[in-house]
Amino acid sequence: MHSSTPPPRYSLRQLRYFVVTAEALSFTAASKQLHISQPAISSTLADLEDSFGVQLFIRHHASGLSLTQSGKDMLALARNLLKSADELQTAASDLDGGMRGQIYLGCLITLAPSLLPQLISRFMAQHRSMRFDTCETDQQDLLARLQDGRVDIGLTYNLDLPPDILFTPLVDLPPYIILPKQHRLAGAGAVSLSSLLDEPYVMLDLPHSREYFASLFDVFGRQPEAAFRSSQPEVIRGMVANGLGYSMLNFPLRSTCTVDGKEFAICEVQEKAQAMTLGIARLRSMRQRKAVHLFEQFCTEVLSENTKLVQPLHQEDV
């Protein structure tokens, strides 16, 4: 019995030309990357537009290309289809129990140092033929990468997630305070946020993160003023350890020593503060590849069991 579904009117080659050109937004740059002449790329993309019945690019005479809204919508789908095609190419290894493939994994930059290496190492110990392409970035950029298909899944918090992102919650992580080792409150088990309002604040200056931590002070009717700020978590910890102020984090640390050999103290928040939920994010409309699904299942099992990866560091451990 023959299927009534007509064959696709496009090729994987056309899709690869489209993705490379869409990322470069330049026929010249795409030509160099693909080692194909500019006229050949232009002609191939024109044929692809005819096949789809939509315009993918706006061609500017002196300033390269820009994507139409249809082109933006098609880009994530094209990336995913090419990944599936690559997965099909290596699917023969599945027949004898192996698993191959490449996972494009994003991670919130504040989580990456403590979380990413351990997860990947443990997963690859079970699936040695798997490969990863990782990206550590802020929440805003991570969501954009999920939406346009550059990232398959992301390890992140439930911070301002748009409706097209599907989020699988794994672990709730309450905020905690980090203080200079010699701070007057460093030996306290729990510290009230109100007692820190007039202290120098070292702000983790990342989209969504800074707003979340600021919101914890709403109950007092005022916000802490940032004496210092950085988008790099290790810099934040270093500033605190060197006595420049206090800061706040969520993901539990397994060490209170910074890269320059200084130390900081960890205290719980005395008030009942809103926790952030660590979980797995992916584009709701994107079909999940087998390799990605396997890694997501692995992360769910590891993190939802609250293993040492996410156990809090108690003061007595310091």
Descriptive overview:
By secondary structure, the protein is α/β, with parallel strands linked by helices. The protein is built from 9 helices and 13 strands. The protein has helices at 12-24, 27-34, 38-52, 69-89, 112-126, 139-147, 209-215, 233-241, 290-304; strands at 57-60, 64-67, 101-108, 130-137, 153-157, 165-173, 176-180, 190-191, 201-204, 226-230, 247-249, 264-269, 276-283. α1 (12-24) packs across α3 (38-52) and α1 (12-24) packs across α4 (69-89).
How do you describe this structure in short?
By secondary structure, this protein is α/β, with parallel strands linked by helices. Helices cover 35% and strands 22% of the residues. It is built from nine helices and 13 strands.
Task: Write out key terms for the chains shown.
35% helix, 9 helices, five-stranded mixed beta sheet, alpha/beta, D-Maltodextrin-Binding Protein, domain 2, disordered C terminus
- SS-based class: alpha/beta
- Based on Cα principal axes, name the global outline: elongated
- Tell me the major beta sheet: 5 strands, mixed
Q: What's the average pLDDT? A: 86
